[in-house]
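During the reporting period the student researcher (J.K.) took over the structure-prediction task from the postdoctoral fellow and processed the backlog of single-chain submissions. One of the processed entries is reproduced below for the supervisory committee.
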Amino acid sequence: MTARRRLGTLPDMFDHQGGDTLTEAVYRRRREGAFLVLAGLFIGSMTMLNILGVTRFLDLSFDFLGFTVPLPLAVGVLPYPLTFLCTDFISEIYGRRRANFLVWVGLLVNVWLVFILWIGGLLPGFDQAVPDVAGRLPVFFEVRKAALGAVVASMVAYAAAQLCDVHLFHFWKRLTGGRHLWLRNNGSTMVSQFIDTFAVITITHFYAGLLPVAADRPLWPQLWTFILTGYVFKFLVAALDTLPFYFGTAWLRKYLAVEDEILH
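J.K. obtained the following structure tokens:
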């Protein structure tokens, strides 16, 4: 890459180098800044969904042709699709190594979250893990119980799904010779999100017992309702993020002055 590049009136949020002439140092700062933003959104979303997790289920059920279609959705699922969009951006612009590195950093952040929740419940405080007259624990202990129970499921599902997403993204990229951006964006995300949804629902129920299932009804139809509902939500969001991914990738390539993966 040449030492300087002319980009017309493209704005520079970090530096100005003599009008519209930008140096390689400026592009390096831009690349690290963009990576930091994407990584921050990724890790922030992962932390948020692990804290919220299954603390509340949304009832998005609707009537269709005289039938009620059940759509229970854990509130922690809401920020999750953004994590796949972030890793796809990083895979496309920065390469597989950095995408995998971010996945492992996210996993370590989850471990740190578990440690804080664990130690926070052991240290003395003004309240204790004693239920009130309504059978509810103090707020921290309610969140701690739900988060610690779900975080194991989340971490296993997260590692499997995110590593699968990165692997499939680059598999489709090699297979198509770098063409068909929509295929690797949607194909990798939709497969990995099914793996994530199936793993997190089954582990959350069988390991932590936190799903609101009815004991007097068959178990697996209820679990499949949670699995399919979560997956359909993620599937639709993944389909809708195709255009943002296309335009975002094109803009980032121009803004960061890259033709292919950088900083492997």
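The committee noted the following: The first helix runs from residue 24 to 52.
J.K. will present the remaining backlog at the next meeting.
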